[in-house]
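User: Hey, my collaborator sent me this sequence without any context and asked if I could get a structure. I don't really work with proteins. Can you help?
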Amino acid sequence: MSASPMSASVASLDPAHVVVTVPVPGSRYPVDLMYIEMVDGAYIPIGMRKPEGSGPFPLILFATGNGGGGMTMLRDHIDTKSWTQDQLLDAGYAVAWMRYRAEVDYAYDRIGKLIQSGRQHRQLFNRGPLEYEDAIAVAEYCKTLPFIDSDRLGYIGVSHGGEMALKIASEYHGFKCFVASEPASHEFLRLRPDETAHVDPKTGLLNVEKMLMREATKVRPRITEDVARARVAPIDTPFFVQGRDDDELQGIFRVSYDLLHEMGKDAIWKSYDHDLHGFIYPVREADGTYKPDAVQRQAFADTKAFFDKYLKA
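Assistant: No problem. I've predicted the 3D structure and written it out in structure-token form, which is a compact way to encode the shape of the chain:
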């Protein structure tokens, strides 16, 4: 009995290294959709894109917001937020959108560093891995790819993805530079919210959706200074922290930079006047094209110059 077309197709794939290549709308650079094993054996998806040729290329990992959503959300990011990636591909960078597991409310703050051990010849952890540790696992995997220069990895994260940059850099030194755009780093700073944030009685989880922390002068007295400084102390990777002038969390963004600067870290700051949260990732218009405005183009130029300094030198 002959094999069906479906079984023949499945048989041609390596189940441990599944890669599906699909086009990206409006781009000459396709994306390799793949699943990468995390430290606990779970798999998360990334979308890898590279310039023409065999490399090795410097790589920039992309993150935005909270985790979850899996392959469906990953493909939405690729299809609707890839203008920035296309510009970097033109400049000779490989790029990859990441997904990662959902944020666990204040687990990073309550439980502390992941400890790995073993039991009955298998893995044993003191807690489940967190989303920023997925990004570390992705970085470590990507370093093994033959077309990636393992010594030239960068990271760009927006909002919660920006806070993840700080968490990663505090524990892991495998990136050459980080862009933390609008980093919602209230947990990293151990911020004590005011009445604009509250515990949801239905879930017992902190609701920060309407938290107002516009001014650094308001934020600084509310962070847990000794804890925040202890977390910043191990960072030895350059940072570009990007603010947004009218964002309700602008004070958090600025204090994140201020601590890096005060502690002698290699860090720069710039804030942009834009109405889109996540302005560094222009969104595809309804007609299928990207129309980044002057502010977004300037933000990209600043970002590319930062990456060029550390990944192209």
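In plain terms: Confidence is low (pLDDT under 50) at residues 1-9. You can pass these tokens on to your collaborator as they are.
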